[in-house]
Amino acid sequence: MRNGKEVDKAIAQALHDLRNQKGNRTLESQWILRQLGDEELTKEVKSLSVVALHILSSLKEKDLTGVELASHLEVTRGAITRAAGNLTAYHFVKIYQLDADKKKIFYQLTDKGRKVAAVHDKMHEKIDEIFNERIFLKYTENEKQVILGFLTDVDAVDDLLNKML
Fold it and tell me: Can you count the helices (H) and strands (E) in the chain?
């Protein structure tokens, strides 16, 4: 059985996934774009995927390889390659290789990428705050276990339907 914080995190992730499946990413994107206040930057950010935004946030602490990003974000390396290509084209990240190991490609935030990552992280902090106030403090640990079970079942059914259709 998961502890309280693990359950809260799992519920938040399940609800995030459901919102994104339903095409509500536009609400998050609109919030980010309003916070940027830079017309040129806003135009470029509109072309970024959810994966690209999460790559930016992942690179705030240290430079990472595509394999490390894929593992950390739990997406395919192909998804990282596509998103990173867009991020590189718009100069949100730059790539480099170490002299000792030319096989590994590292991604590094630029100042422009750091600005977008900060706004993206601020949005997630606000969402977490709202979830905490409106959901996590409202329900008991047992109720949250039931909610998590329900959301997990909904996700499993959705996966099954996607395979069938």
Answer: 8, 3
At CA 14, angle to CA 141 and CA 75, rounded to 5?
135
3-state secondary structure 61-116: CCCEEHHHHHHHHCCCHHHHHHHHHHHHHCCCEEEEEECCEEEEEEEEECHHHHHH
Q: What is the pLDDT of residues 30-81, one digit of tens each?
A: 788 888 887 888 888 888 888 999 999 999 999 999 999 999 998 999 999 9
What single letter denotes the amino acid at residue 100? A
SS3 state of residue 60: coil
- Phi and psi (nearest 5°) for 99? -60, -35
Which pTM value belongs to this model? 0.76
List the domain boundaries for the chain.
4-157
Q: What is the side-by-side strand order in the sheet with 64-65?
A: 64-65, 101-109, 93-98
Choose the CATH number for 4-157 among 2.160.10.10, 1.10.3660.10, 1.10.10.10, 3.40.50.970.
1.10.10.10
CB distance 6 to 97 below 8 Å: no
The distance in angstroms from the start CA to the end CA of the chain is: 34
As a whole number of angstroms, the distance between CA 76 and CA 20 comes to: 17
Q: Please identify which residue in the block is written with the tokens 């601020």.
A: 122
